[in-house]
Design a protein that fits this description.
It is a single chain. By secondary structure, the chain is an all-alpha fold. The protein is 74% helix and 0% strand. It is built from nine helices and no strands. The longest helix is centred in the middle third of the chain and has 28 residues.
Amino acid sequence: MSFLSRIFGRSDPREAARPCYERIVQHGRDPFWYLDGQVADSVDGRFEAVCTVLCAVLLRLEDDDTDKAVRQFSVHVAELFVDDMDGQLRQNGVGDLIVGKHIGKMMSALGGRLGAYRAALAAGDGPQLEQALRRNLYRDAPVADDAVAASAGHLASLYARLRTLLVQKVMQGEF
């Protein structure tokens, strides 16, 4: 919440999405990704892990996107992601003039990942999901097949679990 919002008593409607976003980040920082999944424990690797979990949650929310409140909630979650990435970039020394360009690339990457994971998770196809993860989560870096398979299983399991939950539970970050 901004300083002016606090002074004038306006609340940020995105705050309702914060528990969900914090849970996404918690899942993205799960040591599984970096140990069993062999995702690089770096700024890029952590971005990719959080982005992968974010995609699973956004895809689950899509199941109920005929509800205007759920659609708006999805937007708020994505905006919190953008704010978080903006802060991370600035903290890592990226200057004001370049931050917007990086955020644009990140949002484009998120859109591409959503499409790739949507198709692979809907198909229930392990090899298709593994291929999408190699291209996105690992950015085509050489990674052992068993690590990619473990990440694919982990993501598929998370998505399956999300789909069993009421959308309100997902929105509250209870997953």
